[in-house]
Amino acid sequence: MKAFSNAMRLAMASVGLAVVWLVVLPWLLACGPVARHVARMEDRGVNPAAMYYTELERLPLRPEWLERRIVLWP
User: Which of 16, 47, 52, 54 has fewest C-beta within 10 Å?
Assistant: First the structure.
């Protein structure tokens, strides 16, 4: 009975992973911020799937108005 329980847990974990990989992540790719980021990278000739952050210009992490108001490290 324990082997069946372990097999069911493995099956459920596999289904959960498949749902995230095949449904949730593609859905997120179509969402506004992620789609804009991917489009910006593709416009610059960068493959977002193979992006190395050390080889890119610094991407804006926050809006400019927030950068002017908040100083994190004076």
Answer: 54
